[in-house]
């Protein structure tokens, strides 16, 4: 529980600071390979979009509820490995962090635009309705910026950026949790059950 709260607090602090201090698409160069680049998206992690915004938000609510219930069931077991609970909690916290953006940012902030830094405008006075807010992303790591050689098939001569997605702390929490599950807890994944034992 403490881990979930800590991830949510860090995630929301970063997002609210970026949203209320930077214009949309503004970028702060930290190093050649790391930028704080403010964007917003309607979709899933790393800016992906699938289907309607409302359905995605409702799916998130159901998935977070199911995962929370599953974590609660696992925490009651005496033989559970706590690393497994930690990984699941990281995924839950990351998903909840992005859901908070969708639930409340549209209600509480005016729209971020190029040339305008968003401000808190009070609950119900924002740019969108409940569950329809946009997710704030800001971490950009263009580790390799180059051009494909002219002889390269299909995209020769075009620009290439290795790792171009812009993401947030919640996305990274989900990603680290999923990768750790796949590396260290495959046995537990294969035995997933929502029944009390």
TrEMBL record:
GO terms for molecular function: aspartic-type endopeptidase activity. Its main location: membrane. It is a multi-pass membrane protein. The keyword Transmembrane applies. It comes from the Bacteria. It holds the Pfam family Peptidase_A8. One of its GO terms (cellular component) is plasma membrane. The active site is at 137, 171. The chain crosses the membrane at residues 54-72, 84-107, 160-185. It is an enzyme of class 3 (hydrolase). Pathway: Protein modification; lipoprotein biosynthesis (signal peptide cleavage). This protein specifically catalyzes the removal of signal peptides from prolipoproteins. Belongs to the peptidase A8 family. This is Lipoprotein signal peptidase. The lineage of its organism: Bacteria, Pseudomonadati, Bacteroidota, Bacteroidia, Bacteroidales. The gene is lspA.
């Amino acid at each position: 529980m403490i881990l979930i709260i800590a991830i949510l607090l860090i995630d929301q602090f970063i997002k609210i600071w970026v949203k209320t201090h930077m214009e949309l698409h503004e970028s702060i160069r930290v190093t050649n390979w790391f930028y704080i680049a403010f964007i917003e998206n309607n979709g899933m992690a790393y800016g992906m979009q699938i289907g309607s915004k409302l359905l995605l938000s409702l799916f998130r609510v159901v998935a977070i509820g199911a995962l929370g219930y599953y974590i609660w069931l696992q925490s009651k077991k005496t033989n559970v490995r706590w690393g497994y609970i930690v990984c699941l909690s990281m995924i839950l916290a990351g998903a909840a962090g992005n859901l908070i953006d969708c639930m409340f940012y549209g209600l509480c902030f005016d729209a971020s635009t190029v040339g305008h830094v968003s401000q808190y405008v009070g609950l119900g006075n924002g740019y969108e309705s409940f569950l329809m807010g946009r997710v704030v992303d800001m971490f950009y790591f263009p580790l390799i910026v180059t051009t494909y050689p002219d002889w390269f098939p299909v995209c020769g001569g075009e620009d290439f950026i290795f790792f171009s997605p812009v993401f947030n702390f919640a996305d990274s929490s989900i990603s680290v949790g999923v990768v750790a599950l796949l590396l260290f807890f495959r046995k537990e994944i294969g035995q997933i059950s929502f029944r009390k034992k």
